[in-house]
Amino acid sequence: MIARTPEPPYYAVIFTSLRSDTEQDYAVTAERMLELAREQPGFLGVESARGADGLGITVSYWRDEASIRAWRVQAEHREAQRRGRTDWYRAFRTRVAHVERDYGLE
C-alpha cells in the first residue's frame, strides 16, 4: 500500500537490500519491526517491495531526524540490525532524505 503521509516537510529512510539465502526468523522479525516502528513517536508510515531477484526497498517515513535516531537505537531494532548484517542480507544501503514535496493521485 502507499503510505499516507502528512504535508511536508518530513523525512524518508530508504533501506535497499539484497537478501541472503538464510530465512531463519526473518519473516517473524520483519513483522515485529513493523509493529514496533508503528509504536515509535514520529513514525508516519512505510512502503516496501521485494523483487524476484531478491532486491528489496523499504521506505519508512518520519516526522523528524530525532525520531529516526530514536528508532535507530531502539533495542529490538538494534538486534534486528545485527541479525541483518550477520544472517539475512548479502548487501544493503540506508539513505535518509528530507521530503520537501509530496504529490500524487489518490
TrEMBL record:
Keywords, sorted A to Z: Monooxygenase, Oxidoreductase
GO molecular function ontology, one term from the record: monooxygenase activity
Keyword tRNA processing: no
UniProt lineage: Bacteria, Pseudomonadati, Pseudomonadota, Gammaproteobacteria, Pseudomonadales
Oxidoreductase listed as a keyword: yes
Domain ABM as annotated: residue spans: 10-96
UniProt cross-references to Gene3D superfamilies, sorted A to Z: 3.30.70.100
Protein name stated in the entry: Antibiotic biosynthesis monooxygenase
